[in-house]
From TrEMBL:
It comes from the Bacteria. GO terms for molecular function: hydrolase activity, acting on carbon-nitrogen (but not peptide) bonds, in linear amides. It comes from Pseudomonas fluorescens. This is PIG-L family deacetylase. InterPro entries: GlcNAc_PI_deacetylase-related, LmbE-like_dom_sf.
């Protein structure tokens, strides 16, 4: 996850996630329509925890349906607190994987059978490594896979790079790609025209799935704490947690 350094305009109530009228018009889609029976699901997260923010509810549904699951964490998230003595990269490189394992446990993921790949790329620098990202991702895909990753126009450089690289890898291998917005929901409402609403579908979640997703997000203790000594706010800003209470997740077809 990346710091939610929202501008003053994005910090108020007029953000896309809580004010765009188009949200109410998004048609729902059943999990079975997204993922055919027996298909393997691959979730590609630029940073540890992006899978919870983007599709923690969907992951629960897919796990219940017993789809084979693979999670690819492109980075270990160790650059989330630049300049911090409390959360230096050396500490985060150990803590973040532990937080991810706990978050997945809270989601009810089958850790004994979940295939989890850690890419080891440096976060905050994925755009410069995009040429290496695509073949790395393709190495772990196979024809017929259903892949979920961050939207290539999400507005975060790492998210965008992983979205583009995943699209190229899926095209090369013959896998189905779906994109997930995270940061885009916190754009000012006036920018809602940039959202591809025609591609959006709504995966409905019950209250239990939403509660488990929030519980999983709170496993990321390092991301809930900033560093006041250097003026660094929490990476998991309150507005991100508020959005996660919505009873649905959005997928771009």
């Amino acid at each position: 996850m990346k710091p939610a350094y929202l501008s003053e305009g994005r910090r108020g109530p007029a953000q896309i996630w809580n004010s765009a009228p188009q949200l109410a018009q998004i048609p729902p889609i059943a999990t079975a329509s997204l993922v055919p029976a027996g298909a393997r699901v691959v979730v590609i997260a630029p940073h540890p925890g992006d899978e919870v923010l983007a599709c923690g509810g969907l992951l629960q549904l897919l796990s219940t349906l017993e789809h084979p699951l693979k999670l690819i964490s492109i980075t270990d998230g160790s650059a989330s607190h630049p300049g911090s003595q409390v959360w230096p990269a050396s500490r985060l490189s150990v803590v973040r994987p532990q937080e991810s394992a706990e978050a997945l446990r809270r989601l009810g993921m089958p850790l004994h059978s979940l295939k989890w790949i850690r890419g080891g790329f440096c976060d905050n620098a994925l755009a410069a490594r995009e040429a290496q990202l695509s073949p790395f991702i393709a190495r772990y895909l196979q024809p017929g896979d259903v892949v979920f990753t961050t939207w290539r126009d999400d507005g975060n450089a790492d998210h965008d790079a992983v979205g583009r690289a995943s699209a190229q890898a899926c095209s090369q291998v013959g896998a189905q790609l779906y994109e997930l917005p995270i940061r885009a929901w916190h754009w000012p409402a006036r920018e809602s025209a940039a959202i591809p609403w025609h591609r959006a579908r709504k995966v409905r979640l019950n209250s239990w799935a939403v509660a488990r997703k929030l519980h999983a997000a709170h496993a990321y203790a390092s991301q809930l704490m900033g560093d006041p000594e250097i003026g660094l706010p929490p990476i998991l800003a309150q507005v991100l947690l508020e959005r996660m209470r919505e009873p649905y997740e959005i997928v771009f077809l």
